[in-house]
Structure formats: C-alpha cells, structure tokens
Amino acid sequence: METWLQRIFLALSLTSAAAVAQQVEPDIAVDVVSEDVLDSENWLLGARVGVLSIEDFGSSALLALQLSYHINEDFYLTAEYAQAKAGRTSFEELSGAAPLLTDSEREWRYYGAHLGYMLLPGEAFLSKNYAMNSGLSLFIGGGNVDFAGDKVFALQMGSQFRLYATDWLALELTFSDYIFETTILARSKTTHNLSLALGVAVYF
Q1: Burial status of residue 81 (CB atoms within 10 A of its CB: 0-12, 13-18, 19 or more)
Q2: Is residue 37 part of a domain?
Q3: Residue 185 included in any domain
C-alpha cells in the first residue's frame, strides 16, 4: 500500500514539474548589431590641411594630397604631394636686414612615397552604443623637397590615425616629420620639419 501511494505522489510531482517547465520562457534581450563592412576597393585618394613647422622659418599652413594602394590588410603604399610657404626667420625679424629668400624661394614643396604598416586596427567608441572602425598606422619613406632654390632628398616618417565614417569615406589625422639637409644659414645642418594635418580620404 505504501509503495503504491509513493508511486502516485511521484507521478503527480513529475506532471506538475513538466507543466511549469512548459510555461516558463527565458527573457533574453537580443541586441542587433549593424556593422559596416569596408568596400573591397584597394585605392584611396585623400586630401588634408594642417600646419607645417619649417625649422628656422616658423609655422605655415600645409596642403597635401595623397594616393594610396593597399597591398593587403597590413601594408600600403602612398604617393604624396605637399606644399607650404615659409615665413621669416628670427634673424630677418630682429636685424631688419634684407630678406634671405625671395617670395618664390619661400615656396616649400615635397613629393615622394612611403610604405605604411597598420599597427593597431580596431574600433573607436563615440558613445555607449555607437562605434566606428579605426586604425593607427606607422609609415616611412622619402622624396624630394624643393625649398630656397635647392632640391634635396628628404626622409619622411610619421603616423596616421584613420576613422572610417562610412564604408567608403575615412577621416585622417596625420603626423609627419620631413628630415633633410639645408645650408640656408651659411652652414649645413639636418632639419626636422614637423607637420600635423587633418584630412578626408575616399576609397575607390
């Protein structure tokens, strides 16, 4: 008799548990993530404006154009043209002597190429729920500088932070150092000409 009662209670317990399990539904919030996928185009055309500090000649406005080819996800090649106009040296300002350079000789131009490496690809979170693809790259290269009536070889190195606004448009912040020899002030010396510029680039 006791065994029969135990079996009845066990069957009722299992039936009640099954009914409760059928009624309970998990309340799990599902987030829908929409992420832009970059186009497969490997070419990039960009323009930027900023400031160039020409050693001994102060800071000047800088305009630069670039054409890049992405070899793969890590490496890219860039051809660049940049121009600025040098100001007056402190010697010219203080002495009141005749200018060291003519207006045409104060035109500063650079054209060259560099190899870049994508060091830190990732995302930049602009808010709690909104992020954009980004990347930090380093580059090194060389070219020619036309300045003060001379054409000299220049070594270029720097870094670039790129923020992908869409799958075809990017914003860029570029830091560069143009290193070359000059003899303008009657002695030969290596000059470091630093620039910081903001620009836009389009993939095609």
Answers
A1: middle
A2: no
A3: yes
